[in-house]
Amino acid sequence: MNADVSVGEPAAVIAATYARWEGYRGHIERDVFGTMEPAAIATTVDTFCHAQLRGGVERYEFCATSVCSVHGVRLDDDRRVVVKVHRAGADVEHLHAVHTVQRHLVAAGFPAPRPLVAPTGLAGGVAVAEEMLARDGWEDAHEPCVRRLVARGLARQIELCKELADLPGLKPSTLVRRQLWKQPHDQRFDFAATADGAGRRIA
User: What gap in Å lies between CA 160 and CA 100, rounded to an integer?
Assistant: First the structure.
C-alpha cells in the first residue's frame, strides 16, 4: 500500500493518508508508534527530527505507509527530509548497508538521496532519514528512450557499487529469493495459517 497527500499540517496529512485506504488498520504504525493517532505520530516524528537533525517539522509534504511508515517533511530551517520508520525486527545490518551504499553513490555524483541519519531507534521501531529529492514529472518506462535511460542509470549504479559487493548486510539475490516469504513484512499476512492448499497448481 502506498499513498501520499498534499502538503499541509502534519496530523491532517497523516489522517488523510489513512482515510484514502478505507478499512486500513494501521499495522505498521501500531507496531512502531504504539498508536495510529495522527497527532501522536506527528509529535514523535517531530521529536526525532529535533534530536537527530536539529530541526523541527514545519509541515508535511507527504505521508505513506507500506513495509515501513514514511514521512516526507519540511523542517523549520527549510530542509526537506524523508523519515522512514521500520519495525523493531527489521534487518538493521541491511539498513546500515543501504545507508553506506547511498552515501557512496552520492559521493560519486549519482542522483541518490543523501543519507542523513543512520538506523536509529524511534519509539518502537528503527528509523533512517535521508534528503528529499525534487519530484519531477512521471515518465513512461514503456517508452524505448526512457527504458534506455533507466538501463544506463542501472548499469552506472552497478559499476559504482562493485567495490561494495562484500559489504556486510548485502545478501546475494538467490539467498534473498529463498528467504523472501519466511517472515511476512506485515501482520496482515499469516502464511502458516493459510498454507493449506497454497502449493496446489491451478490448471
Answer: 13
Distance between CA atoms of 83 and 116, rounded to whole angstroms? 10
Contacts 24+ apart (CB under 8 A), 151-159: 156/110, 157/105, 157/110
User: Residue 134 domain-assigned?
Assistant: yes
**Structural domain count of the chain:** 1
**Taking Cα atoms as reference points, which of 128, 123, 5 lies closest to residue 64?**
5
3 located within any domain: no
Specify if 90 maps to a domain. Answer: yes
R_g of the chain, CA atoms, integer Å: 19
pLDDT at 2: 42
- pLDDT value at position 66? 82
- Residue 130, beta-bridge partner list: 82, 115
Q: Which residues of the chain have pLDDT under 70?
A: 1-7, 23, 25, 172-203
Task: Give the domain range for residue 167.
Answer: 10-179
Beta pairing, strands 125-131 & 80-87: antiparallel
Residue 203 domain-assigned (yes or no):
no
Provide the whole-model pTM.
0.82
